Amino acid sequence: YTKLYEMDSSKATSSTPGVVVVASTNSVDAIDPALRRYGRFDIEIEVTVPNKKERLQILELYTRKIPRNSCDLESIAASCNGYVGADLWALCREAIKSAIRRSLIAKKDVKKESSLTMEDWKSASSLVQPSITRGITVEIPDVTWKDIGGLKDVKVVLCKFCI
């Protein structure tokens, strides 16, 4: 039997209950169209990257039990464009680790005297990047004005304003 056959034959009848199949993917285009037809995976829910307000809510949730006196979570949320919930959790975790290290170095009571600072967030953001950009490298070609053929008048105008 194939998965498609199993899905098609698992419909509810008066004598047998139906089966609900839930799946998730981050590459919906890689799914066989036969799976996406009516009666199989015919309902799709897209979970998008959180916007600034949603990122702020996520950061507030993840740090709700930690003092954050000098932290501007709004600016942190604004600087996290492209981060999903897991990325924000990793960012919070690294910021918390930074705060704990700082407290241990200062020989403070970690539970009573640790609080997140903007420096902790800065340290964390140097370690955590949005997962969507992982593995992407940008190569900037070495192009000079001599490589651009023709368009002499355009190059003159650009040189006036750019250089």
From TrEMBL:
Domain annotation ATPase AAA-type core: ranges: 12-48
InterPro entries: AAA_ATPase_domain, AAA_lid_3, ATPase_AAA_core, P-loop_NTPase
MF (Gene Ontology): ATP binding; ATP hydrolysis activity
Residue ranges occupied by any AAA ATPase AAA+ lid domain in the UniProt entry: 72-104
UniProt protein name: AAA ATPase AAA+ lid domain-containing protein
